[in-house]
Structures are given as C-alpha cells and as structure tokens.
Amino acid sequence: MTRILISSSANISDQLVEYFRAQIREDPDVASAVAAIRSLLKFLKRDQSETILGLRENMTKAIHRLEETDSSVAVSSGGELFLRFISLTSLEHPDLSQCKNVMIERGELFLKKISLSRGKVGKLCHTFIKDGAKILTHSSSRVVLKVLENAAADNKRFTVYVTESQPDSAGKLMAQKLCNLNIPVTVVLDAAVGYIMEKVDLVIVGAEGVVESGGVINKIGTYQMAVCSKAHNKPFYVVAESFKFVRLYPLNQQDVPDRFKYKADILKTVKDLNQEHPMIDYTPPSLITLLFTDLGVLTPSAVSDELIKLYL
Amino acid sequence: MADSDGRQVVSINHSTEEDVKLQEVVQAKCEGKELTKEEKQRLRKEKKQHKKNKKDDRGPPEKEKEKEKASVLAPSKPATQSPAHKAAPVPVNASASESPVAAEKPAKSKAEQRAERRARQDTERASKQGKKEGGQQSASSKPKATPNELQPVKRLPEHIQVDDPAALKKLAKKLERQQVPLRSDYGYKVSLFSHLHQYSRKNPPTQQISIPATVIHPSIVRLGLQYSQGIIAGSNARSVALLHAFKQVIQDYSTPPNEELSRDLVNKLSPYISFLSQCRPLSASMGNAIKYIKKEISNIPSQCKEEEAKRRLQECIDSYINEKIILASEAISKYAIEKISDGDVILVYGCSSLVNHILCEAFEKQRKFRVIVVDSRPRLEGREALRRLVKKGIRCTYVLISALSYILPEVSKVFLGAHALLANGYVMSRVGTSQIALVAKAYNVPVLVCCETYKFCERVQTDSFESNELDDPDDLIVTRNGKTHLENWQTVKSLGLLNLVYDVTPPDFVDLVITDLGMIPCTSVPVVLRVKNVDQ
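^ inputs. structure came back:
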C-alpha cells in the first residue's frame, strides 16, 4: 500500500514538471514564473494532504522540484511569493477543504494579478522613451519587448541596439522580434558595449530577479553594461515585475548562490563548477538609475521598502 | 495688606521667618538629606521672595520687559502660572515669570491676577492682528516677542549647547533643583567642538556626593562612577548595566503616601538620569531603554498594588534585555553567518560585543576564516577583542589604524559594530569607523554593519561635529622613556587636545546592515523605524 502511495506522489511531481514544461512550450511568451505559479496552483487543487502543515510541506517540495527543472531566480521568487500570498490569510476555518478553497481562490487572484503585471510595467516605462531616442538593451527580455511595443504603438521613433548575448545568441532572437514590430534594430557584439555606449541615450534591461539591496540579477553581461553606462553618465533602467523580488542580499558576484548561476541540468551533471561559465551576474544598486515595476517607478533604495511590505 | 506700609511690614516679618527657614533648608541640603516636598516648595517661595525684593529696587522699564516675558510665556504655560500648581515640577521659566508678576500685584487675589493676565493676552492678540494688517513697528519690544511664540520652540538637547550661557544657566538651575552635582568642564576646548562638554576623569561627579548617598540611589551612584571612569564601556554593556541598576531602584522604591506609583516613580527617575548624563552623556541605546521604562511605568494601572507593580516592572525590564539584546544577537549571528564563507579574511575594528559574538559563533559552526583586528589610540579597545577571539582559537592579526591601506588588499569583508543608526541612514560608531568604511569602499571591499534594532534612533545627523562626545584630553598624553612632552599642555595657550569618541559614516560606504529583523540596506532604516512605531 505504502509503495503505491510513494509512487503516486512521485507521479504527481512528474506531472507537475510536465505541466510546467507544457505551459512554456505552448506559450513561449509567458514568464517562467507565471508558468510555475500556474503549475503550483494546479498542484494545490490536486493535492490530497490532510493537514495545513502537510499542504505547506508538499507545496515547498513542489517548488523545489520546479527549481530543479528551471534554475532561474524568477521561479524561486515567484514560488515563494505564491506560497506567502496564499497563506497570508488567517486560515481559521476548521474545515480543511474550506481552507483549501480559500487558498485556491487567493491563488487564482494572485495569478490574475501577475499576468497583468507585464502590461502595467510596459505602460509605466514607455513614457521615458523620447522621440528620436537610441536605446541599448541586453539579450532577450519579454518585458523590454513589451515596453518597446508600447512605445512604438505610441508613434514614437527610436532605434534599438541589442547585444548578441552569447552563449545562446538570445540577442538575435530579440532582434528578430523587434524587426517584426518594424522597429529599426542593430545587433552588436557583447564586446562592443563600450564602443556603442557613446551613441546611445539610455539603456533598458530586464531582470531575472531583483534583490533586497535594490540590485538585479540578470543575464551575464548586464553588469558590464551597467558599469559602462555609469562611466558615460547614461541612465540605466531596469524593468521587472514585482514577483521577481527575492530575499537575497549578495554582496558581490561571488556571493550569488550557485544554484542560480548555472543551468539546472549542468548543476546536476557537472562536478567542477569552476570550469563552467555562469549564466547570470549581479548588478549592484549604485549603478541602477530607476526600476520600473508594476508597483510603480522605484529607486533602488525603495525596493527594500517594498520587500519589507511584502514580506514582513 | 492693602497699604504699602503694611506690605513692607509684612514683607520684613516674612523675611526674618523665611531666613530661619531658608537656613534650615540649606542645612538639610548640605547634609544631603532629600528635601521633602514642603521644604522644596518653601525653598521656591523664598527664592521668589528674594527676587521680588531685588526687583522692587529696579525701575519700571525693567518691569515692563519682565511683564512682556511673562506674557509671552503666559500663553504657552497658562496652567502653571497659578502658584497653587507648585506640586508638579515647575519649569524654571514659569518661576522666573511668576516673580515679576507677583512683584507687581502682591495685594490682588489670584483670581484677579488671572483675569488681568487674560485681559493682557487678549489685548496682545489684538495688537498682533493689528500689527499684521498694518505692518507697523510699535515702540515696545512686544511685537518682537509675539512672532517668537508663533513658531514652535525648537529645543536642542542641552548636552550640545555648552557654549550658550543661557542654556548652561538653565541646566545649572535644573540640576540644583534635582540636587544633582554639576560637573565643570576641564581644559581648553578646540573651537569647533566648544558646544560639547569636556570632562576630566580625575574629578568624577561622585566626589561631590556625600556618603551615604540619600538623594541619588547608591546603585546609580556606583553606575555613574563606572561610566565616568570608563569601567563599563560599549553601548550594550552600558544599557544592560543601566537596566540592572533601575531594577535595583525599583526594588527599593516605596510609594510615598497620597502618590501614585506610575507618576511618582517617573519623577524619581529624572534626577538619576540627570546625574548619569553628568557622569557621561547618554548613548542612543540608553535613551531608548529609558523611554521604554518610562512608558511601562506610566502604563501601570492605578489600582495595581505596589508589590504587583514592582514585579511587573522587573519582568518588563528582564524581557527587554532578553528580547532586544540577547535574542537579537542570536538572530543577527544567524544572518551574519550566512555571509561568512570559507577562506574569508574578515576585518574588525575596536571591540564590539556583537561582532565578537558573531565571529565566535561562526567559528563554532566550523567556518574557516581569519580575522584582522584594527585598533587605535587612545582607547586601544582592539586588544580586548583580540583577547576574546584568540581565546576561542581564531587566527588573528593585529594592526593599528595607520596600517589600514596596507592591509586592506588582503581583506574580503569588513564587519563593524554600531553605537546607533540614525534616521537618515548614517551609522554612528566609534571614531575611526568612517575611516575604515571609506578606505574599504575605495578597495571595493564589502562593509557590513551589525546593529540591533533598539539602537535605531530618530535623530538625523550628517556630520560628526553636531552631536558627539569629548573624552578626557589627558588620555592623549603619553609617557615614553620617562619623558612626557605634553605634560603641561594647559600652559600653552594655543594648544588644544581633542579626544573624540564617535563619528558618523554615510550610508554610501555601508553595503549591508544586519539587524534582528533581517538584512537591510542602510537607506531602509527609516522604514524599520516606521514599522516599529506602528507595532508600538
């Protein structure tokens, strides 16, 4: 009997992962955190634990499982925020199923809110793009794409420079999408950021995670770009949804935990991480001018304020 | 009592009687016995009478000025004007204003005096209105006085107003009233810091207190001596010692008849606090602890019995120490240990009980790191830190602060303690801390400040001059090979010795603040203060 139960729980987590992967496959535009939260909600509906504590444990295990699949910061932060959000209510109902219904309701609400967050960010940020602006961006970010889409819809004329962003050449993908929107775009080498900085007016990048200090974790090469823009006195804007806020506080590049730096499958297979190239880097708050989030336009020091409000 | 002769006769009679009483009272003061309330009232009355006699000799214009001063103060303190309210500690201003008023109308009754005062205030208000519309300058200084009363009076703490003689006089009066000895400043003060006290360790204020001390509780006297001689140093140690002394005071306290514990105990504590601040200016942590105790005392319900109330207060103090200091340091170590990785070289400055605790805990948790202890004259507190760490078995290096830029390329992290965290994100700590933060920033070494939340204070400061502490200048004198060059520094008129105790570090140099609430950036201190105020 116990053996069957164990295998069914393993089954459930496999199904969870499958569902997650399916989400990303079907809708490549969805943020990985949103997909993760949708899967977690489905998991919650299917979960059959008898106690609240058991439920929370299962959820935590499910989040870990998802983190193993996709090691981005956003999945981890989104999962934790989801768990916090649904258990924020005082679950005083004596009946477990009632509690679960309340949690599911809150979960749906949370999902609805965050699905709209990208649109909110786009609306906030596009006003900062002036007519005739030259924008530099890094790698492929769906939020930045939304911002540029909104700006183009507003009949603004601007040109975009995108870095190639090796090793996965995500920049070329971004360039393709921008071409489809009829925005003039040029792909530059990662090494050409210093060269191109004097031509551009502003830099806009997305983020995989926003940390407590107000700094961001993003695709490798972002830190370089931030240092260059500081040296040239160009504004460096970051666009991120609020579910990307995470309770980390790295002091420098080394302090970012390994589980975020490398892809999930590499973490599992490779022994010596020193031979691997990290996929992300940390940009300290002193180099960032403003952060555009669905909670509003924030300075890096205000991020901690928002985090305290969310978490405390 | 209506005719002037009669008045004179009465006053003469009064003065002889009062002289006798005054002598008694002065005698009692010399013996160090605590004056009873009646004696205190009598003393006040006598002083006023003396002042009145003196002022009778002066001319009318002086009286006019006094009257204006009285009328200026009258709107702000109408309740305390009536002599019947002498029971509450009357602010010195009120007593000063009361005497000229009394000098003018001794014969009229109190009610008539009050009515007259009100009429005067009304006319003043009318004249103020007229002045506003007309914009004319009238001859008397009354209009000059009235705009002052429109602005809220900003009160600076007295310990940073030493170069203002009026503030000093006020302080002296207050201390005399509380029967706390006034400590005199020592030596030539550097002009930038002339607004701060500078005391010598050789004459502590405890010498001016008789034995056995009856006005100030003996445990407070002991505490004051320990503070002024530097036996207890470090903000946590000082706060804990203060709270323990207050526990003793509460234990020995007995409510006088017809008094409420919640109000009387707070009044009893005020002279103790004045005495302690004469021994050594209060730290921010001590200030917060005192605020907490006063709040707890005033929240005691009146129907609570004395034993019960005392027990409750003792418990409050114990739980404050436990939560805010001991448990907080556990929480901070937990967070801080996450930031210490194997192979780290950690730099610490001076002796902070919290940082030492963190390092000892991390060492017990098998982290591999080594420590560089930076020290500075004249306190040489780093030696104590070195002693504690080496006893644990941690590998340490010891340098003086002048070797800082030499040693920093080796360092991976800097851990600093704090005396207080100000509301604009500045860190107030032992002098030398901001230097370390500055040089660490230049070398891109992360600076972590560890501070409990009870040290957060609402003050705002952007420089180290405004509110600081000057230690004994003789500490800077050093004897080497039997020769003391600075022995007679007081005779050299152009020489000043400056021994600063604190400095402030701007938040740009601090990367992370570890508190018991978690890891926050330096700019989020006002957020924490706001959250804390909401909680309370």
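The beta strands of chain B are 344-349, 369-375, 395-400, 413-417, 420-421, 427-430, 447-450, 502-505, 512-515, 518-520. The longest strand of chain B covers residues 369-375.
thumbs up if we can close this ticket
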